[in-house]
């Protein structure tokens, strides 16, 4: 089974480390939720995995092979897809054109639309005319169309009401069920824990709750609160 692992990873920006000594494993077909307060370093960590920035200490591996020195494009070719914060659609293109940027073939397009039936109805609409939730579906569809092995999702719910974000959750579950390993950074903690297999908490640049079953955190608000406080 495919695995992406971080072992003792520290990421520095400017003056010094923003997140230190993180170890985690993203497994094919599973969702790992990474939660924690603002400024904890979650975005920086995701950026170090996809190669937007380079980590300073530790090891990042895919199936035991180090990828720390690879460029962002090389990591993308290895199957690491990173959905960054914000709705990264091309507003003047149609839904179909947005997805075809990564789908490349009509066959892949058909596969994607089978997993995103709501988008099929809007396929020829200009992306700018879609609702916020639908635009995020386009972002997910485009990532799925690139046939990733690992998908890093950074605060997809930003600017969305919880009820709108909830419509995206089965799609994320479906992507994982197709064999993709998902690392889900999310501000709606309980929603993220609800669909995750495993979860961990970071606070003030450190792991305050190590990777383990998501249910343990979901079912114990006091454990979650303590981890958010960084203890
Ligand atoms: N480009 C940058 N240059 C320098 N420091 C940065 C940069 N981006 C983020 N930081 C700092 O790194 C720390 C961690 O930020 P990061 O965005 O990774 O955390 P986060 O957990 O994703 O927070 P949020 O939930 O608010 O997005 C913060 O102190 C932030 O100010």
What does this 3D model show about the protein?
GO terms for molecular function: ATP binding; ATP hydrolysis activity; branched-chain amino acid transmembrane transporter activity. It comes from Leucobacter luti. With 231 residues, this protein is α/β, with parallel strands linked by helices. The chain has a domain at 1-79 and 148-157 and 176-231: Rossmann fold. The chain contains 10 helices and 10 strands. It has helices at 42-50, 72-77, 95-103, 106-115, 117-120, 132-145, 162-177, 189-195, 214-218, 221-228; strands at 3-13, 16-27, 31-35, 57-62, 65-66, 80-83, 150-154, 181-185, 198-203, 206-213. The strands form 2 sheets. Strands 6-7-8-3-9-10 form a 6-stranded mixed β-sheet, sandwiched between helices. Strands 2-1-4-5 form a 4-stranded antiparallel β-sheet, covered by helices on one side. Strand 7, helix 7 and strand 8 form a beta-alpha-beta unit. Helix 3 runs parallel beside helix 6. The radius of gyration is 17 Å and the shape is globular. The model has no long low-confidence stretch (mean pLDDT 94). Residues 13-14, 18, 38-44 line the site of adenosine-5'-triphosphate.
